[in-house]
Amino acid sequence: MKISLFTLFAAQSCCAFSVVTLRAPPSLSTATTLFSAAEPTDEELQSVVEKSKLSDEEVEKVGNLVSDDEWMGLGMELSEIVRVAVIEESKKNVADFIGKEDYKVGDITKEIDSRVKDEVAKLRGKDEYELGDLTVALDQISKDLTCQLTGKEDYEAGDLSKEIDSRVKKSVADFCGKDEYQVGDLSAEIDKRARAKLFEFIGKEDYQFGDITKEVETRRVEWMKGVLGEEAAANYEFGDLTKKALTSLTGKDEYEFGDVSKKIFGSLFGKRKRGGQ
Prior knowledge:
Blueprint: H1 2-23, H2 42-51, H3 56-98, H4 107-124, H5 133-150, H6 159-176, H7 185-202, H8 211-228, H9 230-234, H10 240-250, H11 259-269
């Protein structure tokens, strides 16, 4: 900020002396020296401040503008440094990937194509890639995995479908508690379990239309009795639950606007101190 103030008052003083020079005859025009050295002392700066025609508020405003200008310049320089660093790092990574310093359009694509073909050739046990090798390699891999699933040495058409069907049926049989799966077992088991949960919820085995709604209403009433009390639940009006919750939170019998905010901020920061106490 010392340099900024120096620049500010030097510029202001130069403007003042320039006005005087324009009014004087050419023969009397002389150069004006503000300070005795390139780096002014605190006393010289203070002297310029005292002689300045700017008010303290104007000095502060201009000083802030100068500071902002310096920070903006620094930000632009840092942005350029980061940009150059990113570009150079990208160039280095590309050069390492393609194996040469001079990058040309398409080099990355060519390198990826070359590496993929080399890996496919390794899968096929060949020195060079040939058209169709990838399809043959994937087909062989899928057959080998199917043989691992079925436990067979040689793959036959349909082995994968048969193995999946067998495993699904066994899982369904285990779910139903049976040794072998039969058509309809899964649907029957799901229906049986759903009914068991339903009867457990409504508390009886003979279900009638509306039993679920009645049970939900019964449980809601019991819950309200536990929250509001039996008498309040019997005379319940819309909004009573909200009032009860606010009362529990604020500790007041009647809610006023702002009570929740005061309670929350009071819990976080403590009660507000007044009069320096």
